[in-house]
Every structure is written in structure tokens, then in C-alpha cells.
Amino acid sequence: MSYQVLARKYRPTAFADVAGQEVVSRTLANAISSGRVAQAYLFSGPRGVGKTSMARILAKALACDQGPTTEPCGVCRHCVMINQGSHPDILEIDAARFNSVDDVRQLADQTSFAPSQARLRLYIMDEAHMLSTAAWNALLKVLEEPPPHVRFIFATTEADKVLPTVLSRCQRFDFRSIGLEDITARLKEICIREEVPVEEALLRRIARAAAGGMRDAQTILDQLIAVSEGKPDGADLALLLGSARGEDVETIVGHLLASQAAGAIDAVENAIAGGTAAAVLLEQLIDHVRGMLLVQACGAQAPAVRRLGLLTPGLEAHAKSCPPERALRMCQLLIGSQQALRQGVDPRLQLELACVRLAGLGQLNNLDDLIRRLERLESSTPAPPRP
Ligand SMILES: Nc1ncnc2c1ncn2[C@@H]1O[C@H](COP(=O)(O)OP(=O)(O)OP(=O)(O)O)[C@@H](O)[C@H]1O
Ligand SMILES: [Mg+2]
Ligand SMILES: [Zn+2]
User: Which atom of ligand 1 is nearest the CA belonging to 186?
Assistant: First the structure.
């Protein structure tokens, strides 16, 4: 049997199945129930968050033998063909490749023919921002007054590049990047169905790395399963993401908290020699300290901490042992390094400087302490008598 990548295998097939896009799902479902489906939609939003999936679901909802319905059956010939992407009346067009004026004119001419099998003909135009102005102009007239059996869905990651004349003829939906919880939950479901054991903490790290993109998350999971034999672990994932292993980050922070700059710099060297990019490592350090701050502020069980998906016994211990002001200062210094890095300062130099500064904070704390004691001493000594 041929292998199908997870991201395709688990494409959502019903409105309720699309994670994190409830507003769009609900509005479309309402439009179908009330018979007010627009003739042209624009789906905009980041990559891999469900635009094409939603377009296909809408297609099924309209074309299904039971339809129009908000719950397409999934088994009639229309539903099956749409799921496979082979329905003759539901045309998926990649505007990146199909953008000559002739192509578009031909398409516009075709719209006047009746659909061959379904009760409508739907054009799903992906990467719509790639259409040239001339191509759009060839389409505008049909878009203005499409024949009753014709519908358009334009999908784009760059809505601001779509002409205003087009925008004004479409009903627009902005798809959002998907939340960490939603992505983690979906990954968990996939692992159960695939019967691969992956710890939830790892799934959260994948979800974080995917930064809101469901397809990216599923692709990382796919790769993780492929590279690891049997049970994927943190080291496999770190290797895959080009990030340092969790324990390496903990070692670095441990040295910093113990005011051991040399140890921290050594551990940084090791991580970089192991293939971690300095910028990625800096980001991980920031995350770790941020995790400490959150644990200190809200407790280890708080949703904010869980959302970050980084809690380990090591991090919790660091949070306990480090005064909050110091953790805050660490975070500020690290963010400063990150900004310097964006301005092109040598990343390794930046990391080394950060280590020295952060390790020095312990001393500074002592200094703070000293000043406070001096102040206390001063206020308790009686003021000298006035002359
Ligand atoms: N909201 C979502 N809920 C569940 N799975 C999703 C969601 N978004 C994306 N996916 C997963 O990612 C895959 C790709 O999604 P889809 O093709 O709908 O993304 P897209 O928004 O059209 O992306 P692109 O801008 O790259 O075309 C799907 O097959 C599915 O596995
Ligand atoms: Mg798409
Ligand atoms: Zn059906």
C-alpha cells in the first residue's frame, strides 16, 4: 500500500472537523442552511490553516446528493470525487501556474456551460494573489454577474495583493493561525489513530514549532515518526528542529543560575557543535526563562504554563531557586541579545556576552542585597543632632 503523508490523510472532511476556524465554519454553515451562499468567497490567511480544506467541504456541502446540506454524506459519488480532488465540476486551479490572460478568458467562457454532473460548478482558485491584473480583469465580468450555477472560492495567503475591485465582489473570510491547544489535540488524535506513542510534551513542542500552522505541525510529526524507531523522543525532535536538546538548555541555565559563566559558555559551545543554530538556542533560552517566570507568577499548573508546553522538573526547580527579579532581568537581557542579533551582531559573540552578563546577575543580586542592608542600617541609626 502506498504511504500517504499525515497532512493529507487527516485533511478535515466536515465543518466540525476543521480546528480553530469556528467563525468561518459557523458562518458558512448558516449560509447553507438559509440558502444564502455567496457566489464568490475569498479565503485569506496563513499557510496550512484549512483554506483549501474548507473550500472542499463547502463544495461537498453544495454538491452532495443529500445537499445542499451542512453535513455532506461523504459517501456519494460527488463527496468521494471531491475528497479525491477529481470532481469534473469542482475545479481546483493553481493561480501560480494558471495566470495567462488566455487561460483566464477560457475559464470565463466555460462558466456559461452547465455543470456536467453536479448541480453547480465551483472554481477553487488557490494562490489567488498570483493572478496578474490583466488576468483578473478578464475575470471581473463573470465575477460581477456569474451564471447562477457558478461559484468561486479564491484562496490566498496575501489578501493585500488582491485587487480592491475583486475584494469588493467577494465575501471575505480571514482564517486564523491555529492555537497551540488545538494543534496539540489534533496531533494527539492522529497519534492514537496511527498507533504511535508520542508524549504530550513532545506534541506541544511540535505545535509550538509549527507556530499556528496545522500542516506544518503534521509534517513535523510525520518526519519525527520517520526518523525515530518505535518511540519518538525529545532528542529525535531536537535533531529534527535543529534545536538544542531540552537537557542542554537546562544545563546552560543551571550554570547561569550558579553564576558560572565558563560552564555556561562550554555548554553553549557543545550545543552549537551539536548542530544548534545560535539564534535558535537563544530563543530556547528565552523560552526557558519565560517558563520560569510564568511558574513563579502563576504556579506550575496554570494554563499559561501548560500553553507554553515546556514544563519539566528541571525548569520547575530553576523557578524555585531563582529570585523573580533575577529571572526577569535574565529575560530582559536575553531579549536584548536577540534584538542585537537581528541587527546582525555575530550570534556566537552575542550568546557568550549573554552568558557572562547573566552569570554576573548573581553578584549583582548580592550587591542589591548589600545596598538594601546598608539602607536599612542607615534608617535605623538615629539622625545626628542638629547644631
Ligand atoms: N484547521 C485545520 N484543522 C485540521 N487540519 C488542518 C487545518 N488546517 C490545515 N490542516 C491540515 O493541513 C493540511 C493542509 O491544509 P489546507 O490545504 O486546508 O491548508 P491551506 O490553508 O489551504 O494552506 P495553503 O495556504 O498552503 O494552501 C490538511 O490536509 C490538514 O491535514
Ligand atoms: Mg490551500
Ligand atoms: Zn455526499
Answer: 4
Neighbours of 238 (CB within 10 A): 23
Residue 1 lies in a domain: no
Extract the C-alpha cell encoding 379: 534608617
Pairing of strands 171-174, 90-94: unpaired
Same domain, 210 and 293: no
72 and 21 share one domain: yes
Residue 124, Ramachandran bin (φ over 0: left; ψ between -120 and 50: alpha; else beta): beta
Q: Rounded to an integer, what distance in angstroms lies between the CA atom of residue 191 and that of residue 185?
A: 10
- Quote the number of domains for the chain: 3
Residues 165, 223, single domain; the answer is no
Can you give the pTM of this predicted structure? 0.82
Q: How confident is the model at residue 385 (pLDDT cuts 50, 70, 90)?
A: low
* Top mutation candidate among 25, 53, 189, 219 for ligand 1, by most atoms within 8 Å of CB: 53
pLDDT tens digits for 312-360? 899 999 999 999 999 999 999 999 999 998 888 888 899 999 999 999 9
Nearest to 248 by CA among 285, 222, 301, 283: 285
Establish whether residue 309 lines the binding site of ligand 1, counting it when its CB lies within 6 angstroms of any ligand atom.
no
Domain assignment present for 302: yes
Same domain, 17 and 86: yes
Determine the residue of 52, 130, 194 to mutate for testing ligand 1's pocket, defined as the one with the most ligand atoms within 8 A of the Cβ atom.
52
Q: Does residue 186 sit in the same domain as residue 55? A: no
Domain that holds residue 270: 246-374
Do 366 and 272 share a domain, yes or no?
yes
Q: How confident is the model at residue 253 (pLDDT cuts 50, 70, 90)?
A: very high
Distance 331 CA to ligand 2 centre (A): 38
Is the Cβ–Cβ distance between 19 and 213 less than 8 Å? no
Q: Is 49 in the pocket of ligand 1 (CB under 6 A)?
A: yes
| 47 and 196 co-located in one domain | no
